[in-house]
Amino acid sequence: MTAAHWIAYVCLILLGATQTAHGQAQAQTSSAYGQRGEQQFADLGDLKLQSGAVIHDFKLGYRTFGALNATKSNAVIWPSWLGGTSAKIVESITKDKIVDSTKYFVILVDAIGDSVSTSPSNSETQSRLKFPEFTIRDMVESEYRLVTEVFHLTHLRAVMGVSMGGMQTFEWAVAYPDFMDLAIPIMGSPQSTSYDKLLWTSQIDALKLDPEWQAGNGRKPMTAGFAVFSEIGAMANSSPAFRVAQTPPQDFDTFLATTRKEEPATAAIACNLMRQRQAIMALDIAGEFGVTLEQAARRVHAKMLVIVSPEDHTVNPTPALAFAQAIGAAVVTLDSPCGHRSPACISTGTTVAQFLADAASVQSNTLH
């Protein structure tokens, strides 16, 4: 929210506070907005999970940009990707302007387990592996509570996200089909394939083999197992063609050393990495609703734009494409050897902006 918008908003609250209770309610709502892009937290108390378990004293991190319009019809929620935080999405709003915050009220959310929101690494009462396993649906439920209980919204212009954020987008569209106009999953999926599960299992196993893991109780930085974890991630995040083109054989040792230099995790952070990956491995929206993938897709009422890359070796695009085909959703294919990182190699900003403004004008196509 800009300074001008903030001043105008405060003035409206002061002018409208004719009753003490009403004034207090308005002030409480205004505090949720914060300064433009400032890290905020919603204290949601106990968060009951789909499994029946509970995350106690749950706080959900978020940031906001822009301002709600008079009809509250321009809100866009964008949850974080695997291992990402709302801070890492900020550049997409401020620099790349994939979503224009002069037109939309943008809510960036720290998904459960990202170390900002309540997570295994920072929970005071359920630390490390005492922190219950959660799902992509649980992430969405926490975000729904943020939108409805903190911002008091009854509808969104759009839900969007990249990778695990795209998975949350699919979940939002099926679980709350009338709550948004548009859904834009980017490099996401409604269902984890066996290939996806093999990737995440390999990374989790690598972490568990580290001498400093110690069943989640280690205190020192993890090195050997975390190095293998990082190598697996680097291999999956691109494609064979990309790696061959970008790294000549004589430069491999330098590339490997750089990959291994990623900041080592402690066992506490490794618990975050594991829990988020377990959430992805459990992703099966169709199974969650007891229907086929095509039937789950037909629950969606929002217009959907599905962005995928055929060379994605991190999130297999097959379920996303089947989902899109079932409802005739627009599919944008990124023709790039960058694999899961294709949105960083081929700009999707113009397409997303066009879809947000006029969904009917965006048709299935391939970007090079």
Descriptive keywords:
disordered N terminus, 15 helices, Rossmann fold, 2 domains, single chain, 368 residues, alpha/beta
Number of domains: 2
Order of the strands making up the biggest sheet: 1-2-4-3-5-6-7-8-9
Distance between the termini: 35 Å
Predict the CATH topology of the largest domain. Answer: Rossmann fold
Identify low-pLDDT runs. Answer: 1-30
State the assembly state of the protein chains. Answer: single chain
Based on CA inertia axes, which overall geometry fits?
globular
- What's the number of extended β-strand segments? 9
CATH architecture of the largest domain: 3-Layer(aba) Sandwich
Account of the 3D structure:
It is a single chain. With 368 residues, the protein is of the alpha/beta class. The protein has helices at 3-16, 20-31, 86-94, 136-150, 164-175, 194-208, 224-237, 240-246, 252-260, 267-281, 285-289, 293-297, 318-327, 342-345, 349-357; strands at residues 40-48, 54-65, 75-79, 105-109, 156-162, 180-186, 303-308, 330-334, 365-367. It has a nine-stranded mixed β-sheet, sandwiched between helices. β1 and β2 (54-65) form a beta hairpin. α6 (194-208) runs antiparallel to α7 and α6 runs antiparallel to α10. It starts with a helix and ends with a strand.
Short summary:
The chain is of the alpha/beta class. It has helices at residues 3-16, 20-31, 86-94, 136-150, 164-175, 194-208, 224-237, 240-246, 252-260, 267-281, 285-289, 293-297, 318-327, 342-345, 349-357; strands spanning 40-48, 54-65, 75-79, 105-109, 156-162, 180-186, 303-308, 330-334, 365-367. The chain has two domains: 1-31; 34-368, Rossmann fold (3-Layer(aba) Sandwich), CATH 3.40.50.
